[in-house]
Amino acid sequence: MGWVEAIQKAIDYIETSLMDNSLSIEKIAKVTNSSVFHFQRTFFLLTNMTVSDYIRRRRLTLAAEELLNSEEKVINISYKYGYETPEAFTKAFRKQHGITPTDARKKKGHLQSYNRLVIQINVRGAEPMKYKIVEKDAFQVVGVKRTYNCNNGENTRGIPQFWEDVHKDGTNDRLIKLSNGHIPVILGVCVVEEHQKEQGLMDYWIAATYEGEIPDGLLSYEVPASKWVIFEVHGPMPHAMQNTWKKIYSEWFPSNSYRPTGTAELEVYTNDDPSAEDCYSEIWIPIK
């Protein structure tokens, strides 16, 4: 099953399970035969929203339709769509639609509908992607890491803050000096350990390649030997990096026979000015 087909199968499963309050990201990922992390990441890259956001928006869209087209009590509709109290339902409903459930029933104001997603392959021959495939032995990185929950989109909010923090406290400059140049210069390393998969957790490292005794205050991680596909990224951060990730999963993987292995993935940042239009960086993904 290809990436696009897998995500569409997951969306179909979500749609048939929206009334099931036991619906979980773990169950949805199982439909796609992928880990929670990789399913979440692919879904976000293709749709620009988390799985939880999609489920919540679809439930509140259907709840609004039911308010308009039935005489069912608001309290019963709130329970039906997974809210423990009418107050929680009203708060979420107002956040999405801008009006209360009572106002919606009285047809006061406009509603905001999120339609069922349909994923399509987007191949743009006019915008070629420059890449190469290399094989590398295992290597060590040293740096700092934080753990994020991918189930609620914590990683998308937390990682930019992490980068800001390491620039402020001098860790970024320290890592630049420690780098042995094996992969220049600073790396963002995404790692999902086996015990983290079912919990939807991931470790994100800001690190540099390094050999020898681990410096005080830093941790080490061994990136396994892999066959890598390396994509060029051109343009200012963070948009150029984010856009390339999206193109990789929406265009490149659906058009090729390769698949990610699920081991550590790398964002490689050079010494270029990150705000420059000609800033150069790379994305490394281990493939099979």
TrEMBL record:
<dbReference type="InterPro" id="IPR010499">
    <property type="entry name" value="AraC_E-bd"/>
</dbReference>
<dbReference type="InterPro" id="IPR050959">
    <property type="entry name" value="MarA-like"/>
</dbReference>
<keyword id="KW-0805">Transcription regulation</keyword>
<dbReference type="InterPro" id="IPR018060">
    <property type="entry name" value="HTH_AraC"/>
</dbReference>
<protein>
    <submittedName>
        <fullName>AraC family transcriptional regulator</fullName>
    </submittedName>
</protein>
<dbReference type="InterPro" id="IPR009057">
    <property type="entry name" value="Homeodomain-like_sf"/>
</dbReference>
<dbReference type="GO" id="GO:0043565">
    <property type="term" value="F:sequence-specific DNA binding"/>
</dbReference>
<dbReference type="InterPro" id="IPR020449">
    <property type="entry name" value="Tscrpt_reg_AraC-type_HTH"/>
</dbReference>
<keyword id="KW-0804">Transcription</keyword>
<keyword id="KW-0238">DNA-binding</keyword>
<dbReference type="InterPro" id="IPR011256">
    <property type="entry name" value="Reg_factor_effector_dom_sf"/>
</dbReference>
<dbReference type="InterPro" id="IPR018062">
    <property type="entry name" value="HTH_AraC-typ_CS"/>
</dbReference>
<feature type="domain" description="HTH araC/xylS-type">
    <location>
        <begin position="8"/>
        <end position="107"/>
    </location>
</feature>
<dbReference type="GO" id="GO:0003700">
    <property type="term" value="F:DNA-binding transcription factor activity"/>
</dbReference>
<dbReference type="InterPro" id="IPR029441">
    <property type="entry name" value="Cass2"/>
</dbReference>
<dbReference type="Pfam" id="PF14526">
    <property type="entry name" value="Cass2"/>
</dbReference>
<dbReference type="Pfam" id="PF12833">
    <property type="entry name" value="HTH_18"/>
</dbReference>
